[in-house]
């Protein structure tokens, strides 16, 4: 195993540097093909997202892949890397395996537990495979990273709780209604936060959306995107009784909805519950609405508290996820080392058997008087001697797989038995 990784991410580099170093998905195939055709490089993969750019390679055993990676980046981006060196991080050997497992499990993400990175990594791997750049130890390691991510998801709750305001709104709505299937959403103010919250609610089963905005064209635009209905701003209260969930985020300097208005709306709904999400600052909805039966109002601070608690929960789950990653790293290193020592074991067995056969051949003239059964017995005895001699070294090689000194041990045993590297 000779793995090397160079990368930048949201922790080491500002967005303008990440943009400069990014590689568009449409160019990944050509880029990774160029990468693996460089001297000493046998496999490669490039992961390029908004928060990270990482180039990962497997190199020939004695090759120093670092110059090849530097040349690749400099030539691909056509600039001198010296300006950006301070933003890079390098990982080698087992550190690469550990890093890939943590990235796939979303332990290295800006938002711990987010699911997008696994899909992005799977796409990068698929492109590398299609380009003929993945076919050996690195390929096995990346595939195992996907299995580790699945184990982390199934054995921890790292991705179960909402850690964005829009997701928190969905989580609270589900607690109130139990099921969002068939529920109607009303969006007041067509800003980005409202749009995200509405999108998550629709994905969770809500059936229809109404949108109103002081600029009607913007309301119509958002309604069209969600296959919903645009409502003139002055007709807001006429249509609100249709809504089970109201999301408000305007720039109004005063309340858009007061307690009296909501009381009338609830009466028109025959007191069926309504869920209000006020993500405006200053607030759009009178806090006194919470005093009404069947009205559930949450403002940006309420949602923020949910997000903070959920983030803490993810951090607690991440501790166990890190344990899982460490277990799987050790398992993978043993597996990789076992694959690497197989040629050594075969070479030693082959050498001793050639010696055995050579000695039998050298003394064949003295064995002519032996019966076929006796000659077979000589063969069996000499094979048994070889196997007993091999048992100790081979056991040590297998048991030491993955240990820090394993490479040195293998070299010593190869020299002892006269087997070339």
Main sheet attributes: strand count, strand direction, barrel closure: 6 strands, parallel
Beta strand count: 10
Beta fraction: 5-15%
* Average predicted local confidence, pLDDT: 87
Task: Classify the fold: give the CATH topology of the largest domain.
Answer: Beta Polymerase, domain 2
Q: What is the level 1 CATH name of the largest domain?
A: Alpha Beta
Q: Which bin fits the share of residues in helices?
A: 40-55%
Strand order of the largest sheet: 7-6-5-8-9-10
CATH architecture of the largest domain: 2-Layer Sandwich
- Going by helix content, strand content and strand pairing, the class is alpha/beta
Q: Output the CATH homologous superfamily of the largest domain.
A: Glutamyl-tRNA reductase, N-terminal domain
- The parts where pLDDT drops under 50 for at least 5 residues are none
> How many domains is the backbone divided into?
3
What distance separates the N and C termini? 14 Å
Number of distinct helices: 14
Radius of gyration: 32 Å
Quick one: overall form?
elongated
Order of helices and strands: EHHEEHEHHHHEHEHEHEHEEHHH
Explain what you see:
This protein has helices at 15-21, 25-36, 66-77, 94-104, 116-130, 137-155, 165-177, 192-203, 216-225, 236-239, 259-268, 300-362, 372-399, 406-416; strands spanning 3-9, 41-48, 52-59, 89-92, 184-188, 208-212, 229-231, 245-248, 274-278, 295-299. By secondary structure, the chain is of the alpha/beta class. The protein has three domains: 3-155, 2-Layer Sandwich (Beta Polymerase, domain 2), CATH 3.30.460.30; 165-307, NAD(P)-binding Rossmann-like Domain (Rossmann fold, 3-Layer(aba) Sandwich); 335-416, no CATH class. A six-stranded parallel sheet has the order 7-6-5-8-9-10. It is elongated. The mean pLDDT is 87.
